[in-house]
Design a protein that fits this description.
Elements (H helix, E strand, L loop, with lengths): L2 H33 L17 H11 L1 H20 L8 H13 L8 H9 L5 H26 L10 H26 L1 H8 L4
Length: 202
């Protein structure tokens, strides 16, 4: 193989890999959005499960922080269009930006642990702790932005005589804990499945 042929081969492999990542990201985003249609309230005020966080966590750990951030950003924009506008989740442009593109995009920070988690899995080690740790970073970032927006913009919905920031902390902190528990259960029960989903062949 000549030098030019080798360069052409490497370039094509790189382009194919990028296309695969983009395709996976589109499918994961569609899945996360579809899961938004599944009833997900806990019965405790506005505390809720966000099932789309699970496929997003897997994708970010599988493909890294850049791909995770982009997929989360697209998820947030689509969620804003399909649910934010129609269900009263959009109050003004700044609040909409913080609670949708920014908050959902921050989930991609889970990808910071991609290399470490995959290396652990490739060596046959138990990576549950790492998966939970890095997932907690993305989950926390998402609900932190919701917490900020809640304290500033959603104070009118707080119970009478209750501080808006305390109310926002209870709701968003509760949602963060609920989703971490959901992830913990799934990672423990479906550990082998998670392993296969996170390790990519290309």
């Amino acid at each position: 193989m000549t030098k030019s042929e080798g360069s052409f081969f490497v370039t094509n492999v790189g382009k194919n890999s990028e296309l695969i990542v983009i395709t996976e990201g589109a499918l994961i985003t569609a899945l996360a959005l579809a899961l938004s249609f599944v009833p997900h309230t806990t019965g405790v005020s506005a505390v809720e499960f966000s099932y789309g966080l699970i496929p997003m966590a897997i994708f970010a750990l599988r493909r890294g922080v850049k791909a995770g951030l982009m997929a989360g950003l697209v998820w947030g924009i689509l969620d804003l269009v399909l649910f934010g506008f129609s269900k009263g989740g959009f109050l003004n442009p700044l609040q909409g930006f913080v609670e949708y593109p920014l908050a959902f995009g921050a989930v991609g920070l889970i990808g910071l642990g991609s290399n470490q988690v995959k290396e652990s899995l490739e060596h046959g080690k138990n990576a549950i702790g790492l998966i939970l740790f890095y997932s907690s970073i993305g989950f926390f970032a998402k609900y932190f932005f919701h917490f900020i927006a809640g304290g500033i913009y959603w104070g009118l919905y707080a119970p009478k005589n209750m501080n808006p920031w305390v109310y926002s902390l209870v709701i968003n902190g509760g949602s963060f804990v609920a989703n971490m528990i959901m992830l913990l259960i799934l990672v423990v029960v479906l550990n082998r499945v998670f392993r296969r989903l996170i390790l990519s062949k290309n």
